[in-house]
């Protein structure tokens, strides 16, 4: 993808597999019969894991950092640095790592064995997520261990902010307290990297659906629907974090239904 002067490339790390009926639907109902094309024969929803590489001017930016070296019955990662190398980027070339939020499947390569992986980069995240996942008394110890080494290189933000030419951070809380959408713009075009504001295109097409991963499901649904309303029937690209192939697409209205069309 290219938006104005900004080059956007997917950086694949691995794949997650979730029981779709357990993690995503209208509360108390199973409506997956309307969307069988997104599931395999076992009712599993496949989630791509990874991030995106943005090049703008002399900046080399990662939006999220994959799931890391993990392998269990649901999640498998490990390919992130090789995928980055295939784009001609070594860890030391990365100038900025910006997180949509701090769930484990977005920060996997931020640190490894207590060491910062992208050791020349500045790390950016909304302050509300740093508080929720690292500083809070009830923060998950695994997340604290993973993220604490970033502290000296961290520049949190707590409002909308321009991070680089053509790259703006826009708080979109709900999925997590500091959930952030990164807006890439240029040449009259936009791409919105929305992180987990939506995990599947179904959430962008069906305004009543909710995901169990949302910290505040009501706020998350309102934010997701507001973004979908803003983007529908425009040239803007929407790029969720977990679509198979790490693709983006457009939202279009067909009759009385909203549809995602990959590009
Ligand atoms: Zn995620």
Automatic annotation (TrEMBL):
Extract the Pfam families matched here.
Lactamase_B
Respond yes or no to whether keyword Metal-binding is given for this record: yes
Residue ranges the record marks as coiled coil = none
Metallo-beta-lactamase domain spans which residues? 48-242
Q: Which UniProt keywords apply?
A: Hydrolase, Metal-binding, Zinc
What is the similarity comment for this entry? Answer: Belongs to the metallo-beta-lactamase superfamily.
- Entries under PANTHER family matching the protein: QUORUM-QUENCHING LACTONASE YTNP-RELATED, QUORUM-QUENCHING LACTONASE YTNP-RELATED-RELATED
- Name the chain's protein: MBL fold metallo-hydrolase
